[in-house]
Backbone:
């Protein structure tokens, strides 16, 4: 019980400093404003809802005026907000409240959830955010927090049931309004699709963050064990042709690539012994990763005056009309940088 209390207390403390307190429906709140805002916020972002909410409340300031209007009048104000079945539900609910409850929105949970468009979470939001009643909210933001915090698989067929159980345990008897609002705000501002975990007040106990850190440690460990080998490609160019050789028993067996050297001195000696060239330049080095090691690849380019005859397992690769041959990815990367 102490752990649950700490979760709730942490969230309420966070809300005091970072929570949203100046949204239009939070100013001079009443049950009507909360109901309209909660329906509008279903499947829609807060910043999108705000101008529509202001326009709606200006046109229909209370349930009595709303219930006198037609569905067309409501849809006219709603136009552009989308998910128009929500507007229809507001209209149907207003008519039920007019006839059954004499234009007074029912303030008990069983009656609320019977109204069109009001489910468990919306009913909980209306009662807790307006009157601080002890009812939980389980919207998309809160679901995301709980599935991450407890590391619950999202495709679990009992997910909804598990999340309701969790949020009911976490909800404090006092300050239900602040707690619910804090959870919605955390989901909106911090625990987003791309979470800002370093700013989250729940980070010390969050199983999602723990798993992320563990994964990073594994990656870092693998990187430490990943040996980096320096290697040198020799790119021999004649006009729009590049010399490639087929490898028989190397890492890229049966693929074509440039002459490969693991010592710069051997590369230099090879060029001196075999080639007369017009000019030379190089391509910026890059790293190519394998499972247990990496290559730091440096590429020397020489432009030769005369094309040699090719031997078996060698080709002059045509940059204008490329042959259909197997080429490893780092060679493809280099070839893309070659100007014809």
Residues:
């Amino acid at each position: 019980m102490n752990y649950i209390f700490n979760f709730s207390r942490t969230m309420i403390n966070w809300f005091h400093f970072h929570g949203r307190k100046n949204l239009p429906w939070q100013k001079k709140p009443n049950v009507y404003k909360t109901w309209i805002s909660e329906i509008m916020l279903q499947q829609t972002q807060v910043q999108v809802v705000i101008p529509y909410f202001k326009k709606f409340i200006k046109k229909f300031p209370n349930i009595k005026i709303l219930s006198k209007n037609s569905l067309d009048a409501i849809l006219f104000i709603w136009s552009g907000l989308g998910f128009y079945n929500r507007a229809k539900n507001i209209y149907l609910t207003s008519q039920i409240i007019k006839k059954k409850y004499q234009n007074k929105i029912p303030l008990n949970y069983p009656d609320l959830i019977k109204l069109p468009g009001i489910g468990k979470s919306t009913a909980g939001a209306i009662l807790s955010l307006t009157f601080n009643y002890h009812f939980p909210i389980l919207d998309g933001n809160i679901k995301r927090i709980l599935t991450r915090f407890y590391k619950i698989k999202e495709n679990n067929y009992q997910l909804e049931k598990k999340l309701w159980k969790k949020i009911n345990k976490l909800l404090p008897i006092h300050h239900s309004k602040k707690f619910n609002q804090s959870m919605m705000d955390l989901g909106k501002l911090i625990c987003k699709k791309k979470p800002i975990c370093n700013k989250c007040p729940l980070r010390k106990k969050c199983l999602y963050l723990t798993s992320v850190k563990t994964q990073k440690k594994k990656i870092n460990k693998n990187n430490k064990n990943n040996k980096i080998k320096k290697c040198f490609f020799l790119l021999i160019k004649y006009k729009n042709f590049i010399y490639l050789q087929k490898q028989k028993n190397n890492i890229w067996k049966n693929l074509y690539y440039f002459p490969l050297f693991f010592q710069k001195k051997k590369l230099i000696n090879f060029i001196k012994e075999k080639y007369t060239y017009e000019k030379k330049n190089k391509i910026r080095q890059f790293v190519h990763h394998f499972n247990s090691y990496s290559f730091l690849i440096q590429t020397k380019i020489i432009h030769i005056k005369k094309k040699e005859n090719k031997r078996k397992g060698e080709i002059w690769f045509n940059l204008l009309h490329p042959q259909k041959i197997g080429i490893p990815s780092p060679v493809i990367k280099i070839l893309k940088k070659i100007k014809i």
Observations:
- Residues 237 and 303 are 5 Å apart (CA to CA).
- The mean pLDDT is 90.
- The longest strand covers residues 277-289.
